[in-house]
Task: structure prediction
Amino acid sequence: MSLPAFAQEVTIDDDRTSTVRTSTADGGSPGDVTISTSGSVTVEDGTALVVDSSNLLVINGIVESTDRVGGVGIDVLTGDSGITSGIELSGNIVLDGDFQNNDEVVGGPNFGIRLGGAGTFTGDITSNSGSQIVVFGTDSVGLDLGSAVDGSIRLGGTLAVQGENSIGLAVRSSVSGDVENSGTIQGVSFGGETGMLIEGAVSGSVLNLGAITTGRNQVFDNDFNVLPQESGGPGVFISADVARGFVNGPPVIPEDPDEDGDGIVDLIPGTGATIAARGDGKAVVISATRSDGSMGDVTLGAFGTGDEASGLSIAARFG
Result:
């Protein structure tokens, strides 16, 4: 992740209970913000963290809003002219509304990370293995990309949303790079959730190397009451152009399965990739009709470039 030139670095290693802004993080001046493993930003209302300047945000600790309506973990404001930034998550973003196991999930929409503004966000958004984004509430979104992104989206942790018609990852504007999930995206419990929504043009590929699940099988709550099956929405819904295709599973299978010569078949990322929608849900939907009802052409290009071009717009491997 590249740093904006001459940025001051601010480390939060204590517990904050008011909103932190990158534009004023360094004593009223802009600064790159790192939340250490011992640090946290927790607010009862509204937004915990705001990225409103060309600075980086690294989260190794906890970001939390307990607001049940309109809570936001990280609000990225690109303005009209855009910002150069980057977000790397190794810790947790939590918007659970302080619900207990048997409570009815009400409220929402809430957002784990939300991008908004006419300008472009230049940089990558990455969640590393072991990280979590957990969001409760009707119509909530784990990662909502309402601004154009000049970079890639790479999800390697757990992204879980719980609430009717909620969305794990929503790409609503253009992305110049890849959109990749190698972790777990879960839209569970209340039905109608969507795992990955692509309705902004992606110049790279859309790849699932991990697991995407929507809906819920019949389960028991903490009081042993039966909770019936709920049908999920689409695991992946694509209604925009994807220049280099959609892939579920490893994009490339090496000719030599034991490249390091240790006598053991190498682990290939994405080999166990799955997309599942419980009940009547559909695992993958590709449609010219967007979520708002508008229509548009959808073109999926071939995956890969040069000698690695597959000639396939949709590639899925099972087994």
Summary: The chain has a mean pLDDT of 86. The CA atoms of residues 7 and 31 lie 6 Å apart. The two ends are 35 Å apart (CA to CA).
